[in-house]
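Hi L., both proteins are below.
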Amino acid sequence: MSSLSNRPPPSIVTISTISTSSSKRPAQSEDFPFPLRHSFPAFYTLQPTLLTRTAQLALWSSLIQRYHAHHHLYRLQLSTALSTPLFHNTLIRKRLSRMSLLEIIDYMCKTEKDGGGGQRAEWIFIGGKGKTSEDKNEAWIWWKRPEEWAEVLATWVDKTGQKGMVLTWYELLNGEAVKGEQWLGMDEEVLGRCLGVLMKKGKAQVFGEEGEKGVKFF
């Protein structure tokens, strides 16, 4: 006797199927290895069931962080990101919608206590704009939060004997001394946020004008 009667209806999507199922090979973006779920069509539609939806938001959050870390990217611009391989899988002809991406970034912005993704993103509002969905077009992606980057920098300062030394921002971002370091080529605004954390702790001092900034570590 056929076992078809024991199978779940086709419309039911579970956490496990979103996480692992795929009948196609995962898409590739340069040398970034996408997980199998990236080639599962249902992954691109946020599910109505709260438990499944929350798990799906967490999976997207993790994927976005790993993708940005891999490519050393710090900003996500919705108007262009939706056409990238991260959100548009041409092999299965599926693309995440703008509203879904808005919800994912909103989830990433919230603390875990508030049911979010641990503040792994932050909306960038320019020119005093409000916080409506129309104003949300660009966000920081914190695969390392500013305070985490600050700890990385502080460890490097101790390890390399940079205390008391003065470095230009260019040297700190692109100099020979930082070749091979995680923050090589970092967005200057992100560096400013990181150094701000160290300044509050009395571990750094920033001085100079735009384009000629320097930092001294303590």
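That was the first. Here is the second:
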Amino acid sequence: MLIEETHKDVPTKEGGDGGSMRISLFHPTIPNYPNARFPGVVVFSEIYQVTGPVARFARHIAGQGYIVAAPSSYHEFTGPEPLAYDVPGTDAGNEYKIKKKLSAYDEDATLSVDTLLALPTCNGRVGATGMCLGGHLAYRAALDRRVSAAVCYFATDIHSHSLGTGMNDDSLERAGDIRGELVMIFGKKDNHVPPGGRDLIRKTLHEKGVCFSFYEVAWAQHAFIRDELSKGRYDPAISRICFEMLLELFGRTLKSDLGERVGGEATVENVC
């Protein structure tokens, strides 16, 4: 499927700077079907904003028939350009991550969903995905009941409650507010989210009654889907498998008209 790339600058309030947030848009097109409508997906980036790998990830999703909105998360502190994959870029990204207010992150997600739903070519259904910081932001986006599904790649700081100003977020506490379906993906060699942290996330999602799948890939490290300057961690085979998980979830929840999710766990008959 062909893709048109544009952007929209959206005014923000929570950041306190009176500025705007750049949302990169990746829109699928079908020749001779100008009125085609598609689901929307918000793609949240890692700490480096919308880099080459993030844009390529967004294009892959858009090429499957989804309108993708990729916000630049650090608009309070810098322009929409990506930070470099080097020591200064990493230091800046980590500084901004805990300098930004949690309410500002949530406003970014709300505005991104608003932007998608305002498009006449959006079918009214929205999902979210992201990696690293973006995995956490995709999880928080699912607190918005307009978000039907989220795929969270190696989401950082959920287990440690350490996102945003004060490093005391409420993401796990609010897990019960999630009404859509989650896919949580981690590598077992991810030293950013240790085994105890992954266990805590899984346990909490179970206790809060969230509908979710949880995958831990045996040899995958942090950032294993980043196909550029990944410091030897990029795994294309595993990345492809995880992308199929994303397509399965979004295809089932965003492209199909399922209506509202009703009831809890289905009873499974104990048969051979």
